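Fresh eyes needed here. Kindly weigh in on this sequence plus structure tokens:
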Amino acid sequence: MKKPKLGQNFLVDDAARHSIVDALGDVSGRTVIEIGPGHGAITEILAGRVRRLIAIELDRALAAELRFRFRAQPQVEILEADVLEVDFGALVPPGETADVVGNLPYYITSEILLRLFAAGAEGLLARAVLMVQREVADRLAAAPGVRDYGLLSATAQMNAPVETLFTLPPTAFSPPPDVFSTVLRMEFAPRFCELGVDAAGFEALLKACFAQKRKTLANNLRAAGYSPQEIQAAWPAEVPSQARAESVPLESMAELYRALVRIRSS
């Protein structure tokens, strides 16, 4: 039975579950972390391909069902836990990375993604193949200048290139959700060092820049406490003065951030 508070819509499309696992590539020597395995549609395929599989399931009844089903497969571990509270560092062997797969609950998609980005930045994760609501996938993959580009897009693309693979209709799930779902792949490759910014400071600036979507970038910066003189002195030459944050590439955002840091530290 579906439990609405957990956002459970179980994948029942056979071709889709195989395509999702195939998108991970060769995982024969890998640790794979599965988020929200449900009844094990993807778990079943992964179990025969991986060196080690850790399936994180919040629902106690489903976790018990999965433990019984995979009891004879020691490479499969069922972890009854909230993925937002899991310590990924404790799951990944020292010196190794893990891959992630999962059908993310719609109501906590952004929170899970932020946890994955943090783990990727720590060098714990290499690749993720995730199913999310189509509108969220559009935002994650959007380029600057496109309406869907926003804080989630910028945050994702600072941490991993986002590749859209395919979209599934509601009929691919039981019970059918009210939305389409898109499967995407991300290769974790944080850009903070490349762009010369520190993660915490730059993420704080991004939040300020996207705080009010209808405001210009300069107005959002003023609302965040930067003076007009600081903004003018740090402003990248290639960015129009009335630009909004959604039109500014990450490279220019990083240039702006570095200049603001220099100005405030001098």
Residues 114 and 168 are 24 Å apart (CA to CA). The radius of gyration is 20 Å. Confidence is low (pLDDT under 50) at residues 1-5.
